């Protein structure tokens, strides 16, 4: 398990990276950032990539649920 300070840094960097990705449309920017981190700290790189992947997976899960709920509501409109 990584040091809590490393995890905190990785989480902040992940949030910033996702914001930049969203604004620029570069959906693989996190991979470039990971490469930069890996050149000097494998520990921070791993924590960062974990933080990115969990956030991206969370968003994909939420999008899936929104889609399922919309499909359900469209198929079963309230009268």
Beta content comes to under 5%
Mean pLDDT: 96
In angstroms, what is the radius of gyration?
A: 17 Å
Class computed from helices, strands and strand pairing: mainly alpha
Main attributes of the structure:
79 residues; 3 helices
What is the compact description of this entry?
82% of the residues lie in helices and 0% in strands.
Protein architecture, described:
By secondary structure, this protein is mainly alpha-helical. It has one domain (4-75). 82% of the residues lie in helices and 0% in strands. It is built from 3 helices and no strands. It is elongated, with a radius of gyration of 17 Å. The model has no long low-confidence stretch (mean pLDDT 96).
Helix and strand topology:
Layout lengths: L3 H21 L4 H10 L3 H34 L4
Helix pairs in contact: 1-3, 2-3
């Amino acid at each position: 398990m990584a040091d809590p300070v490393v995890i905190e840094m990785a989480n902040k960097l992940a949030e910033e990276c996702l914001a930049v990705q969203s604004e620029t449309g570069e959906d693989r920017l996190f991979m470039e950032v990971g490469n930069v981190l890996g050149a000097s700290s494998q520990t921070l790189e791993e924590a960062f990539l974990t933080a990115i992947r969990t956030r991206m997976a969370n968003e994909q899960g939420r999008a899936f649920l929104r889609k399922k709920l919309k499909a359900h509501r469209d198929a079963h409109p309230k009268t």
